[in-house]
Design a protein that fits this description.
mainly alpha; 8 helices; about 40% helix
Length: about 250
């Protein structure tokens, strides 16, 4: 869990998000303080529209279905943008993490990534003096360490996941270019050595693929038995007996 931490208590009580930092020791929204403020000022209640900035809402939830906002200018389920605002059938608002066609994005970063990169510059230095941190910074530092472990695993902190992602994207692009140029979907290190490139793009891709092959040779893998086929984890494939085995490894 990557809600803001606290040094006052070790376990989060039920409803901690409603509590007050100064009074209760938890980074909540201080709802009781807000109620007291409204009572002392004798403020009258009025209807308020609340936009949910999160990953989604269950519109049929028993506590929401009778009070959730409904677009009066939209006809449900007719596949038409009745109110001409650019969104089709936006009955209860819109999920802006996706596109105008209503589909979600393929990949999305998690809360751990936001926490990690928000505090990386502040806490990522090897010379950081943790003893000099304020109590709030210590809370944030421990939260950042959890986020870093979730994202980086046991890897060295200096390894940047963005860099690794870019390397993976580059290897996949190179594989696609080489596959088209060589006229085959799988090739060995020896194939790369003997392939005569005709364009600067395929030459660049050949060089990148050769680096992967060299890296595998350095770890004891035979060049002839090595296939450069980056899977979704960014690992080049290695022959296991058949092309089917190789493709299966890429899906593991």
């Amino acid at each position: 869990m990557f809600a803001q931490g606290t040094s006052v208590k070790t376990e989060l009580p039920k409803g901690w998000h409603l509590l007050d930092k100064e009074k209760d020791g938890f980074y909540g929204i201080s709802v009781n303080k807000a109620y007291e403020f409204a009572k002392t000022r004798k403020l009258k209640s009025k209807t308020v529209l609340v936009a949910v900035i999160d990953s989604g809402v269950d519109t049929l939830h028993e506590d929401l279905k009778d009070i959730i906002w409904t677009n009066p200018k939209e006809i449900p389920g007719n596949g038409i943008d009745d109110d001409n605002n650019g969104y089709v059938d936006d009955i209860h608002g819109w999920n802006f993490i996706g596109g105008k066609d209503g589909r979600n994005v393929k990949d999305d970063s998690q809360e751990e990534a936001r926490v990690y990169y928000d505090f990386k510059e502040k806490f990522g230095s090897p010379d950081l003096d943790t003893a000099a941190l304020s109590p709030d910074d210590k809370d944030n530092y421990h939260m950042w360490l959890k986020a870093r472990k979730s994202i980086m695993g046991d890897a060295e902190p200096a390894i940047d996941m963005v860099m690794l992602h870019n390397a993976l994207e580059a290897s996949i692009k190179s594989d696609s270019i080489l596959s088209q140029s060589m006229g085959r979907t799988e090739y060995t290190g020896n194939d790369l050595d003997t392939f005569q490139t005709r364009t600067s793009e395929s030459k660049k891709s050949q060089g990148l693929a050769s680096l992967y092959v060299q890296g595998q040779q350095d770890h004891g893998h035979d060049q002839q038995g090595f296939y450069f086929r980056p899977d979704r984890r960014g690992r080049p494939g290695r022959e296991k007996g058949s092309c089917q085995d190789l493709r299966a490894e890429g899906q593991s």
